[in-house]
Every structure is written in C-alpha cells, then in structure tokens.
C-alpha cells in the first residue's frame, strides 16, 4: 500500500531532497513551507504520515502536531529538529509523535524511519480492520429476538455501551450469551479500538486469579522470578470482562473494589500504585443479590458493579425465539459445513419450541450443528433431530413443584453413563475427529481426552 506523506520544512532544499528520496520509495508527497500551510493541506488531503520540522515560521512544528492529531488521531508523525531544539522534539513525543530525526541526518536514516512509521500505520490499519470484523460479528442488530423483555434489555445495553465508563453487570443462566453480550457492548462503545481482555473467575484458584488480575513483582512468591503485568494493565483504556464473578473470593473482591472506586491498584509484592482507565463488565449465572444476602458476596462490590444491571432471560422463557435463532444458525452452518439446508418441517419446529433447553443458546447451537452434520439437505425433519430432543416430554409437577420419580424413563442410568454415550455418538458423527467433536460438545479437547479415558472399553466397542 502506498501511503501519503506531508512534509513540512521552511528550507526549500531540504524539502526537495526529502521528497525525491520518498517519491523513489513510492510514497505520495505533499509539501508545505509553513505550519499554517501544513494544517491546511492536512485538512484537504488527509495524509497518512507527517514529517514536520520543529522550527517553522508562524506556528511551530509542535503546534502543527497538536492540530494534526486533533484532525486525525491515527496520523503517524515524525519530527525533525536541530540539536539546539531537541527538547521540543521530546515534548512532541509526549504529545504523540512516533519518532524524531536530529538534523543533519542521512537520507537513508530518514527513509528507514519513515519505513518503520509505515509499518506502524499498517499495523493500525489491521487493528482497525479487525475491529470492523468484530463489529460485524458482535452487533446488536444481529441478536435474533421477538421477545419484548430481551428487546428492552438490548436497548438498555446500547445506551450503557455509549457511556464508556459505566460498570455493567450481566446476569443470566449458563449458555444464554453473556460473553457475546459483553463483546457486543465493547465493540459498540467508544473503547472499541482498545483492548478487550477476558477472565473467567471460576476457572482459576484464588491465588492464580489474583496474580492474573493484578500481576506481580519479582519475589512476590516462590516462582515469581520476573515482573508480570496483570490483565488490568493489559486492558488499560479498554474493557475488562470478568466472567462468573460470583466465584471470586472475598480477598480479591476487596482489591477489585479499590480499582472501581479509585482507579488504581498495586501488583502482588509491589509498593507502587498503578493508575488504570478501564471499564469493567462483569457476568454471572448466580443471582448476586441473593449471594449478598447469604454473605457469599460483598455488598459494597455488588452495588459498584450493579450500576447498569442487564438480565438475559433463558431460552425456555422466550420460546418464540427458538425457531428464528435455529434458522439463523442454519444459515451460518450451511456456510461452515458446506451444506444446503432450506428450513425445517413444522413438526421439527414444534419439537424445538417444546424442549426446555437447559443449556440455552449454547445447547441449541450444538443440536443444530450435530443435526446438520448427520442430515443431508433440504428441510430438517423431526427424524433428523437428536433422540433426546425428539423424545423429550416435560414431566408433570407435584404440588410441591418437585418432579415425580415415577415419571422418569427407565431403566435408570447415571448422568456419567448418559454423558459417555453422548460423547461416543458425537465422535461417530464426526468420523472420530476429536477436535470437531470437542467443539460440538462445548469442551476443550484436553477435557474430551480425559473423559474418553474413563469410558469402559466394552461401552466404546458398542459404538
């Protein structure tokens, strides 16, 4: 890609020498001999890179830098200065200049510096492109719903996203899409170009969770040989998503509360206070208010997190969404699996609506992917759906709301045995492709390997 460069210097010979060298490298060149002229050209031409002399007639190069950054914060600026005004170049670096050259310099050094600036610009373009890709995947407009409660929640989420400092608490059962909602909020917010860092609080023991979140200094504990930045630092200027925050210990909760109240923290074993600008989005499948009442979660942290509460209703409470979501998934899987399904029969649609979906959207996704792998094409029929979905019959409830044991299917098997059978069915359907099977099952390939080891040989042989 040929980038455009604005060169500003009050010496005509310098302009001529630099422009010739950079034109030979394929850059598009704009020339200015004063700061005011440079700003005027930048407003009209929107150059990618600016090469500015510090000392200029009229407004100086540092002021031009300020104005160019206000026009376009992504412009990459390289300053030029003589030895006697190098302090002004250092000031320019603090204002966002990429680098500076000290006059007199070799033309080859200047070309190399501009080359490095171009690489930075290329990286920024890639980051911008990836953000646009993410916005395509995580977009409020892509949420399929006919449910009034969820539609109202989405409107609240949009408003919360625009307020980029507001702390958000997303609550809902496992599989309802809390992480997807958090990503959608981030990419809809003014922080979209900045990092989105995620941490599952239920996946780590307390000590490891604390070191991952806050980082540590050398000697903080036995194996801490070097400094490590925590996720809070890595998320600076962006968003930190804390999944399953209801599993966080009281000691870590107290430190997180300080971050929310004061915007700073200390690494483990550290003595220096580190300031961060980060938006916290937390999620949990627990009812945190009840956890506070039971003394399982700090009330002060709950109120700091609960500034903008969002609740995602389970799929069984919005049955009108089941078939539209399934059809939307069908379009995506048609592309991924190279299939050509056109819809589903009324019987299959009614079967999906009748099922209670304890695993919510995640379970529906797995069912649709497995069904489309095993079926051929055309409309998905009732017979194409997995046995457990097709044969589902909601058990009657007793007056106390408990399921009558007499309504359960016999003969009885353990949950582990049911899981083993399901794993083997998915493996068979995927041609024993363990990576693909793990994705359908929603588990890590290592977890799948561990589960396969426990399955008796005679059971595996049956499949």
From TrEMBL:
Q: Which PANTHER family match?
A: TRANSCRIPTIONAL REGULATORY PROTEIN
Segments forming domain Response regulatory: 4-118
Q: What one GO molecular function would you report for this record?
A: sequence-specific DNA binding
Pfam families reported for this sequence: AAA_lid_14, HTH_8, Response_reg, Sigma54_activat
Q: Choose any GO biological process term that the UniProt entry carries and state it.
A: phosphorelay signal transduction system
Positions of post-translational 4-aspartylphosphate modification: 53
Domain Sigma-54 factor interaction positions:
143-373
Keyword ATP-binding in the entry? The reply is yes
The protein in question is named: Two component, sigma54 specific, transcriptional regulator, Fis family
Q: Key word Phosphoprotein present in the record?
A: yes
State the organism named in the record.
Answer: Koribacter versatilis (strain Ellin345)
Q: Which residues form the signal peptide?
A: none
Q: What keywords is this UniProt entry annotated with?
A: ATP-binding, Nucleotide-binding, Phosphoprotein, Transcription, Transcription regulation
The cross-references to InterPro entries, in alphabetical order and at most eight, read: AAA+_ATPase, AAA_lid_NorR, CheY-like_superfamily, Homeodomain-like_sf, HTH_Fis, P-loop_NTPase, Sig_transdc_resp-reg_receiver, Sigma_54_int
Q: Which parts of the chain are coiled coil?
A: none
């Amino acid at each position: 890609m040929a980038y455009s460069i604005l060169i500003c210097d009050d010496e005509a010979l310098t302009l001529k020498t630099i422009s010739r060298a950079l034109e030979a490298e394929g850059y598009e060149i704009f020339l200015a001999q004063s700061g005011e002229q440079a700003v005027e050209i930048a407003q009209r031409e929107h150059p990618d890179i600016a090469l500015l002399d510090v000392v200029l007639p009229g407004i100086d190069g540092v002021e031009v830098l300020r104005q160019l950054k206000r026009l376009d914060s992504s412009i990459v600026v390289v300053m030029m200065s003589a030895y006697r005004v190098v302090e002004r170049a250092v000031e320019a670096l603090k204002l966002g200049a990429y680098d500076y050259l000290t006059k007199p310099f070799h033309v080859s050094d200047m070309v190399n510096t501009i080359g490095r600036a171009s690489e930075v610009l290329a990286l920024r373009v890639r980051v911008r492109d990836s953000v646009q890709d993410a916005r395509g995947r995580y977009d409020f407009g892509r949420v399929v719903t006919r449910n009034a409660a969820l539609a109202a929640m989405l409107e609240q989420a949009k408003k919360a996203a625009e307020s980029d400092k507001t702390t958000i608490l997303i609550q809902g059962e496992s599989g309802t899409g809390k992480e997807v909602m958090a990503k959608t909020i981030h990419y809809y917010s003014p922080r979209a170009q900045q990092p989105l860092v995620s941490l599952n609080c239920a996946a780590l023991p307390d000590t490891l969770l604390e070191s991952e979140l806050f980082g540590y200094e050398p000697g903080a504990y036995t194996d801490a040989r070097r400094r490590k930045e925590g996720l809070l630092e890595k998320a600076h200027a962006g968003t930190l998503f804390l999944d399953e925050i209801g599993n966080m210990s009281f000691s870590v909760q107290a430190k997180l509360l300080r971050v929310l109240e004061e915007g700073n923290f200390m690494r483990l074993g550290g003595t220096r206070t580190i300031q961060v600008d980060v938006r916290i989005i937390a999620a949990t499948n627990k009812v945190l208010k009840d956890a506070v009442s039971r003394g399982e979660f700090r009330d002060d942290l709950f109120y700091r997190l609960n500034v903008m509460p969002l609740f995602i209703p389970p799929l069984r409470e919005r049955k009108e969404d089941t078939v539209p979501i399934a059809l939307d998934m069908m379009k995506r899987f048609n592309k991924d699996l190279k299939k050509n399904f056109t819809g589903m029969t009324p019987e299959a649609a009614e079967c999906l609506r009748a099922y209670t979906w304890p695993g919510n959207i995640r379970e529906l996704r797995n069912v649709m992917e497995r069904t489309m792998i095993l079926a051929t094409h055309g409309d998905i029929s009732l017979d194409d759906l997995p046995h457990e979905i097709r044969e589902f019959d909601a058990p009657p409830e007793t007056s106390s709301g408990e399921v009558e044991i007499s309504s359960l299917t016999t003969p009885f098997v353990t949950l582990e045995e049911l899981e083993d059978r399901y794993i083997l069915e998915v493996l068979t359907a995927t041609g024993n492709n363990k990576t693909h099977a793990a994705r359908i099952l929603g588990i890590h390939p290592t977890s799948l390997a561990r589960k396969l080891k426990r399955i008796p040989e005679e059971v595996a042989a049956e499949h």
